[in-house]
């Protein structure tokens, strides 16, 4: 959406945008200078300050017309560089601050100095602050090249987090992640060069007034979109995500899964909605949503077949990333332009609720892992009695993620479903409902194992500090009550959307995904069920046995397909194909 | 054929070779070198973009040069990080392949971590 008039002056409170970047970066430098002994003190000072800055932006934004601007050195673009924040930025800044706070509390007992390897805690706290600074830069950057630099900073901070424990397996995962991410960012940079060559500016607002359907611009758009998809790990460009997210320590996985993939997603939203809302065309948006559908099916089915809990959640992240891309075709208005409207609000809400819920789930699994010494799903019997708070945090996070009212995911789903009806694209409504069912399926699967009674009491091998579980639980509750917050001053959410969550049909909206999800969990999970010996289960299996065998066959087929797609050469070819298809559909639309 | 066209074709060739190397070469070190080739192609593209500003009467458009310098620094740090990871991997595992069974199918490790 084009703002009415380009505001080319620094607004009151604009310095907060500078602070949001400078404070975490200063923390990084200070931690380096002071060394390992003081790294926790630095982090525990910077984290509350950063949270306060995010809150201040939230408070100031509605008072200054929904836009904060800071011109660096008082030079207006195109000569200078501007930092801008709108409602989207403010929401993402706040989400990031909340998640980082929770992770910092969680990690405080985990990454004590001299607790594990000497370097790991030092590196963790520095990388945490570096990721925060990079993400904040992405959210407030006003031009495409600053976004590129921030994107690279984010990758450089995220990659070492993957290999924090230094095992060969995680080093491989980190190297794959880095190389594929570099491929993505070079494509983005190439698009930036083309855009600068055509228009002589990279400022988002100036570009949005100047872009036209030039062939160079369309190629740049296709290249940049593909690069960002590779960084976001949208199916089929997801080769790096499962090993990277599953191999990292719990606190690092929470950050990687909740926040890092949202960074490149946010740039994509800026590119499509702010820089060139009229250019991509409906066909390219349908392509993005189709890839998202592929991600939902592959991610969810493979997640249901994982034995390790962390891998299950990593694959669930893959599916949820696909869910985020369903908003693109729904955001097209009658004029054939992308409109920053209800669908965008739905997509962003989904990103926020996934960030909070998924971080909580990864942290809960981290607690379970330290408690049990493993995270095999089949070995989870009785864990609900041994680690009640961890399982509760996982359950609340899962319930929020599957879209039970009043979670953020349920509001997002409601907004997107209304838009499928408005634009007449019923097929995306089917995908949205199926996505909700799949999410329910893997949450139900894990909970049914965790709540199953155990014959012998579980002996915990590791400590279970209360603060860790409380941090995870608080974050999960955050996600569960997101739907009740007053979004309308930041996102284009209709006033009555929240109240619609509790209508008469709320029960059917709740039951449909739950029942469908339970059925999918029974049909697609190959692991022996904890109640497998009960009479009711045997009677059920007599009825659905052949169907289940068919579904398991389908599942193993999908899993093999996923393994092929995660080969480097297959992913490279997919990357080229995606960029060609995007370019072709954009050319066809103009 | 003007100098700008020649350099444009060189940039396209470097990008193409780099892209091919990054996708088709199995060894990580070669992938890193290919990434640098790809990056050089993009930087050359920025140089051409700056040169085209000369048509407007400037000696040369300085903004793309500033962008290229930043880009070179970023690519340099990326290479350094990748090489550091690669060296560490070689020290620990004794090989630098990315497609070992552990990396390709994480399920094959029954003990979990």
UniProtKB/TrEMBL annotation, chain B:
Stored Pfam families: Oxidored_q2
UniProt keyword Disulfide bond present: no
One GO cellular component term noted in the UniProt record for this chain: plasma membrane
Transmembrane segments: 6-23, 35-54, 66-87
EC category: oxidoreductase
EC number annotated for this UniProt entry: 1.6.5.9
Protein origin, superkingdom: Bacteria
Compartment(s): Cell membrane
Membrane topology: Multi-pass membrane protein
Main location, first listed in the record: membrane
Record keyword Transmembrane present: yes
InterPro entries: CPA3_antiporter_subunitC, NUOK/Mnh_C1-like
GO molecular function: NADH dehydrogenase (quinone) (non-electrogenic) activity
Keywords: Cell membrane, Membrane, Oxidoreductase, Transmembrane, Transmembrane helix
Family (UniProt): Belongs to the CPA3 antiporters (TC 2.A.63) subunit C family.
Protein name: NADH-quinone oxidoreductase subunit K
